[in-house]
Every structure is written in C-alpha cells, then in structure tokens.
Fold this protein.
Amino acid sequence: MIYTRLNPHLHLIMVPSLRYKVEMEALFTAGGSYFEKKQDRGRMHLMEHLIVARTKKMNFEEFMDFQFAKNLNINAATSPNYMWLEYSGHTSDQDLMLELLLEHTFNPTFDEAILNQEREIVLQEISERSGEPGYIVHFHNKKALFTEDSVDCHETLGDIPAVASTNLGDVNRLFEEMMNKSSVIIMISGGFDSDKIQEKLQNFVQNNLQDHPFTLGKEKLEPGNKLPNEFQDFKQKPLIHPLAHEQVDLNLYIPADIGVHSNHLCKIYNELFLKFHGVLYDRLRHKLGLIYSMQSYFEESHQHLNLSITCQISHVQKIIEEVKEVLGNYDKYFKPVKFDMLKEVLVKTNQISSDDPSTLANFAELTLLSDGQVMSYGDFVTKIDKATKDEFCKFYKSISDQLVNMKVVGSSKSKQLVKVLPEIV
C-alpha cells in the first residue's frame, strides 16, 4: 500500500498488483447529503448522477457507447457523509480511466438535457424508496433514538420539491460549494503502474489546480472529522410501528472506546465473542435457542458496540441477561486457547485479503476517513499478532464496565413489546 499527499487536501492511496482489473475511486469528504442546506435537500444525490453522465467532449449517448466499447464500469454514490465516483476496467485502459476520474472530479460538464433526464429518475427513486416499509421503519426508529442533528437521522433521498425545482445554476453552485469544503481521496487498486500514475497526478495538480476552487477553499473538511451523532437520553426504549415485524429487532448499544488505536482489539473481541463461532453468539443461538440472528458493529461515529438481534418477544429479557453474563465475566468466558488460535488464523486471513487489492485499499481509506491517518491492512494484522492477553483483558473489561450504561432498543409491530421492554429514561 502506497499513501501520499499530492497537495494539502488531495490524498492518494494506491495498492498495485499483477492483475488485469484496475479500480479507481475519488471521494469528496464534504460531498455527503448531510452538508446540504434545507432548500437543497436531495440535490447532492442528483448532482452525483450528473457528474458521471458525460464528459466535455462526449454527450450522454456518446459516453454510454464509449463505456460499452471500452468495457468500463463507471458509477457514483452519495451517503450522508460522502460522495464518491467509481471506475473499473482493464489495466490497458488505466490512463484513460485516470483522465475520466480527474475530469469528473475537478471539472465535470453539466447540461440541461441530462439534468432533465436524471431529475425524473431521482424523483422516482425518492417516491419509490421513501414508501418502502423497511425504509419507513428504519428512519422512524433512528429519529426516536438520536438527536435531530445526528447523521444517523439524515435521509439522503431528500425532498421532492427541492429536487423537482433544481436548475443548472443550483448544480453549479453546489459543486463549487462541495469543492470549497472537501478534501479529496483518490484510491487506485489492481493492475496499474504506480510510478506512472503518481507522476500523471502530480503533473495534473501542478498544471490544473493552482487556481481551482478546490485549492482556494479555506473551510476544508479533512479526513477524520466527525459529524454529529448523539443518542437521546434514554436507557430502554420500545418502538412500535405497524410496518415493523411481528418478532423483535433488538438492538443493544454498549459504550466502547473505538478508533485506530483500538481497532485490532475490536477485531479480536468480535472474533472471540460475537461472530458465528464466538462465545456469545454460540450461547444465544446454538445452546439456548434464543435468537434467530445476531450482527455486531463497533460504531465509531457514536462510540458504541451495537449488537443487532432478531428474536421472539418472550426472549428479550433473557437475552439481555445473557449478554450481561457473557460480556461481563472475563474469567469464565475468555478462552486463552482460542486467543492463540486466532493469531494462526490471521496468517490465512491476511493472505486471502492480499488476493484482492481493492480490499486492502478500502481498508486504508476507511482508517484515513475514521481517524485522519492511514493504516495498511498488513500493519493492522501485525497489531493483532502482537496483542497480548493482558491488553485484550483491559479492553474486554472496559466494555464490561459499561454494561450498566447499555441502551436497549426493541422494534416490533406488536404492542406486547411494551410490557416486556418498558421505556426507561
């Protein structure tokens, strides 16, 4: 993995390998829909469609035919946090892909015909997706748990009136605002010449970005900056919605210290206790038959370990008791033999991950976005390999000590849940 800064706000991550496929990405740190003003809600998503729809020399139809002829896959996406552009193709077209990425990233061409076309598509997306039961329940629950300005409450789809009234002036204004505020991360993996690509990028920066809004912007959002994401004040909350499932979607949130400094310990904890072969999962599902499924997430944005469980209403309190038992009793449930076995497994894990350079590049980008510093997957594996039982014991007990502050949330269509899981502020 190669990481460099091409200028103070342009980051480059490269993972070259001997492959025919090459993948490229450009990410805008202030390109997420969270940064929209109220009157612009939904317009970042629309702009994302427009950025990759054409080039300066090719209109929409010509560009589509060009992608087909070159077997290029070009896409873009918007989340509350970021916007990113994606390119993949054959290694022989690496120079061409880089030219497209740089044009779309720094000098896209917007036109009225494509705006009219994509506006209708985005309006249809908003209409269809906002009416899906899962979408409705998801944001009903998020808005009941998090403060109003939290990123978890933000809906990228936006508002139909704002999108419907979007004109080219709005799009050009939004793009300039995004470039003024964003840092950009360019990520390249697969079969490419890293020296040649880096030289092209350095020349581009020197010859094209000196007076660009990207370079002149003074309010930059650097990687590692966090958007607001705070829980409301509660300990236990039942959420009833007619479109939810009969069974319970049970979420337990346990405060945890999460970041680059502890990501290796989070990985060990997840493997030993929370995954399919872990102690807690095995006990809840196989030994006691209390759950249908369980997923676990160390959520850095709000510094909690989230256990997401599906189960019957009658099992809710027993599950909570078992979680406190297993995650609160190190001497009883920690297995030193499995800790040592995990170190051996990591050799294979590292080799498997190395087979896919995009996985390695994505990991490096994630650490940069999370903490403002890059860590390679190899360094991450080394940290796990060097972790001691004493170090892990301290991490385990830091979570164990926070079980008293655990937030419990249940979601169901059945009002029986309120009796089993009454609200506690």
